[in-house]
# Entry
Amino acid sequence: MIIYTACLTLGLLFAIISAFAGHLFGGHDGGDIGTGGHAEAGYDHSGVPGISFFSPTVLACFVTAFGACGLVLSHNESTRSVWISAPLSSIAGAVMAFIALCLFNWMFSKTQSSSESHVASLMGQTASIITPIPANGVGEIAYVQGGSRYTAPARTQNGVPVAAGKPVRITNIVGTTYYVEAVN
# Structure
């Protein structure tokens, strides 16, 4: 029964500390591990954003469910034996962890988006030159999309220079370079 209590307590403490630490510190203090500092986020084996079965969140769900179920089963006369309560608690923990895994992966799949459609919608949009574009050289533009301001390297289609502050129209995008033409 001590093991069940410890598992339940540790799982709940992990959830509470994660919630407060994520809220207070933004979840970025663990260092960048290739997932933007979020240990539970990243790419699973399929290359789709989501979490794996071995993420801290899913493992904490397993430990918490194992402890809670174990406590309940150890107080019932027919399942008081550790030989009955431990396997049943393990199954309950695995089921709850699987449900959490499916829930989080479903949420990640619904919230992911692609920037491809956004890039395609930039053709013809006006922008401002923030770093002058020299003749046959590269400068920088700023544009607004979806209420957010973005900057990008830019060249002119015909190689003519454009001074800072001048309005331009985006005519083409190749890789990360935006091709623009001056707006009269």
